[in-house]
Amino acid sequence: MASAQCLQATKKDIENVLVSSISTDAVKSALADPDYLKKIISAVAEKFSASEATDLALVLPEKLKAELEPWVKGELAKSLGKGVSASFSKKVAGGFTVGPKDGSYFVSLTDETFRELIAEYLRPVTRKLLFG
């Protein structure tokens, strides 16, 4: 029984290392691209705009402030037709969080949450490829 548990734990560790290495690099590079991030933010913000009549608050990576701040205040605010404010945080390495300005809730689409989401889809396929 101990050897079976050890084997399962080893398989799980191998799976985690492989899935993590695949998903981490891809997500980091995608969410560090300001143009790609603009597309995602626009799509999510439009869904908020259609379903709620509240102003939006975004939290974005500090390292992308120069590229994203003018876009948020100009193009995004104009396309949504409502108030959009952006703050920039060093705690957000990639991606963003978005929600109503009143702070009642927020949706986290950071690099960490994207990585976890993608890993959940990769895990079963990886397990099947590695261990049959």
| First-last Cα distance | 21 Å
- Helix percent reads 55-70%
The parts where pLDDT drops under 50 for at least 5 residues are none
The fraction of residues in strands falls at 15-25%
Count of structural domains: 1
The helix/strand series, from N terminus to C terminus, equals HHEHEEEH
Q: Helices and strands: which structural class?
A: alpha+beta
CATH topology: hypothetical protein PF0899 fold
Can you summarize the main beta sheet? 4 strands, mixed
The CATH class: Alpha Beta
Strand order, largest beta sheet: 2-1-3-4
Total beta strand runs:
4
- CATH architectural designation: 2-Layer Sandwich
Average pLDDT, rounded to a whole number, is 86
What Rg is obtained from the alpha carbons, in whole angstroms? 19 Å
Q: Enumerate how many helices there are, as a single number.
A: 4
Descriptive account of the structure:
The protein is an alpha+beta fold and 132 residues long. It has one domain (2-131): hypothetical protein PF0899 fold, CATH 3.30.2320.30. The chain is built from 4 helices and 4 strands. It has helices at residues 2-31, 34-51, 65-80, 111-131, and strands at 56-61, 84-89, 95-100, 107-110. β3 (95-100) and β4 form a beta hairpin. α1 packs across α4 (111-131) and α2 runs parallel beside α3. The model has no long low-confidence stretch (mean pLDDT 86).
